[in-house]
Amino acid sequence: MKSAKAVVAVTLVAAAVLACGTSPVERTGGPHLTLSPDSVVLGVSGSSALTATVRTTTGAIQYVTPQYVSRDQSVATVNADGAISAVAAGSTYVVATLPDRPDVRDSVRVRVHADSCAGARPDFGGVATAEDRALFAYDADAPLNLQKTVESTNDGVEVSNVSFSSPDGGLVTGKMWDPVTRPGLRPGMVLMHGLPGNASSMTAPAQNYAQHGAVVIAIDAPWNHRAAPPYLTWTDQDRAEQIRVVKDLQRAVDVLRSRPNVDDGRIAYVGFSWGGATGALFVGIERRLKAAALVVGHGGQVTLHTDPGGFKVPGFTCARRVAWIRAMAPIEPIRFVGHANVPLLLQNGTLDPFIPVANAAELHAAAPEPKTIRWYETGHSLGPQGRIDRHEWLNGQIGLDPLIPAS
Question: Which CATH number fits domain 2-113: 1.10.10.10, 2.60.40.420, 2.60.40.1080, 3.30.160.70?
Answer without folding.
Answer: 2.60.40.1080
